[in-house]
Structure to design on (417 residues):
């Protein structure tokens, strides 16, 4: 098996690392990849992953027999459709199903159609109507840009003025805006992998989305993650499965949207039961970095089962250990940040204790690694005990250093964020 992983983040480094450990792999490509993936396979550095024709050509030239797509943008642009036309199997939805992530308006419609619990909401395309609705509400609201926004399209402020101005700005950009009830509870990210008929679930994760300690400050793409989630009870998980996961997969089949790939359920567990915040049609980042190391099944075999309609019979084996990921970010992130910062030599922990996944890093011919993004590394600690995983993660995170590097010191704390 010769896979091509699409993306350059820490999620894609974790995917490449998982493929590299598979007994099935005879070659591995990552496009565009990063300094971390360079040691696992061949980076197709100059490939523009938003140019569908170029990706199909590169996949053909490299002779890959499977493409695993990490990020949402190529999926929403129809990469899976383009690959299918060329007869190249891919793990990910076609553009039509990628709308579940690319349009919050459409995904809310899907949730309504299939009775999936979610926050009550309304969609607006007219700024004055939106403003009237927000100002007349007698409860706290959340404003969401409908389209893709790289984690920056949700405003949860208690300040009505901020909600109004954010909503107006989204409409000015030409997008519709979903306004929904603010929910209290804690968040869980759950990943299903489907072959289009059956699915399996991976252990639940939690993502720490806010930039600041104690879940304060602006939203980010995710500053850390844990897997599994110690405070999610088996009864709560069972309720998520019966009220959200199963109706979703039935709905996908009914709507003709079932696909081979990963479906991410972003859930808020509230006092009134679990509510679905959003779907993503791919692995989460940083959740992939904590869930993949705990997957004991051969990842090549798992992908093969997905592509051959055999996931229903696939024995998913998961470690009993815990994983905790700490994102090491560039100064200024999630606002503007410098790129090209020189990274000190990275820690080399034992793989059973910790892993260091790169995001958008570059490797110079002399071996120097430089940063290229806002979230630059994920340090993942592993351990049979949750606290051991946490210690291992922070030991690694502390020894990842570049000018202005920072991380949240409270990943694993009970506060969601
Ligand atoms: P989404 O992209 O819809 O998952 O929203 C991003 C983040 O905003 C979520 O992970 C939550 O932390 C927060 N959020 C979204 N919707 C709500 C809501 N209705 N109530 C409270 N927080 C929310
Ligand atoms: N960690 C959230 C996401 O990947 O969307």
């Amino acid at each position: 098996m010769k896979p091509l992983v699409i993306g350059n983040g820490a999620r894609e480094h974790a995917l490449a690392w998982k493929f590299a450990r598979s007994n099935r792999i005879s070659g591995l490509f990552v496009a565009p990849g990063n300094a971390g993936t360079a040691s696992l396979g061949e980076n197709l550095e100059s490939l523009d992953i938003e140019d569908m024709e170029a990706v199909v050509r590169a996949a053909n030239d490299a002779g890959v027999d499977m493409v695993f797509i990490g990020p949402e943008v190529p999926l929403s642009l129809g990469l899976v459709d383009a690959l299918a036309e060329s007869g190249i199997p891919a793990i990910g939805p076609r553009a039509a199903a990628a709308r579940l992530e690319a349009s919050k308006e459409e995904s809310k419609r899907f949730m309504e159609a299939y009775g999936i619990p979610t926050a009550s909401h309304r969609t607006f395309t007219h700024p004055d109507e939106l403003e009237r609705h927000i100002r007349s509400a007698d409860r706290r609201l959340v404003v969401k840009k409908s389209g893709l926004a790289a984690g920056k399209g949700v405003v949860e402020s208690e300040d009505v003025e901020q909600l109004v101005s954010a909503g107006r700005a989204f409409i000015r950009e030409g997008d519709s805006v979903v306004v929904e009830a603010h929910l209290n509870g804690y968040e869980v990210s759950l990943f299903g992998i489907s072959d289009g008929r059956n699915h399996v679930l991976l252990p639940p994760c939690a993502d720490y989305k806010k930039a600041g300690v104690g879940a304060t400050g602006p939203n980010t793409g995710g500053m850390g993650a844990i897997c599994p989630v110690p405070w999610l009870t088996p009864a709560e998980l069972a309720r998520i499965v019966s009220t959200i996961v199963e109706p979703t997969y039935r709905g996908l089949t009914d709507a003709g949207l079932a696909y081979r790939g990963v479906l991410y359920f972003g859930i808020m567990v509230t006092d009134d039961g679990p509510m679905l915040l959003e779907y993503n049609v791919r692995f989460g980042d940083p959740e992939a970095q904590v869930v993949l190391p705990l997957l004991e099944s051969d990842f090549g075999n798992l992908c093969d089962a997905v592509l051959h309609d055999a996931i229903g019979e696939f024995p998913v084996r998961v470690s009993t250990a815990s994983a905790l990921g700490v994102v090491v970010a560039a100064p200024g992130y999630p606002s503007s940040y410098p790129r090209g910062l020189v990274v000190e030599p990275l820690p080399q922990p034992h793989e059973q204790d910790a892993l260091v996944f790169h995001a958008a890093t570059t490797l110079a011919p002399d071996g120097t690694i430089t940063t290229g993004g806002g979230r630059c590394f994920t340090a993942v600690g592993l351990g049979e005990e949750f606290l051991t995983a946490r210690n291992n993660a922070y030991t690694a995170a502390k020894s990842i250093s570049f000018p202005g590097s920072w991380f949240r010191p409270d990943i694993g704390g009970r506060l969601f964020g």
User: Anything to note?
Assistant: The chain is about 30% helix and 25% strand. The domain at 120-181 is CATH 3.30.1490.20 (Dna Ligase; domain 1). The CA atoms of residues 195 and 308 lie 7 Å apart.
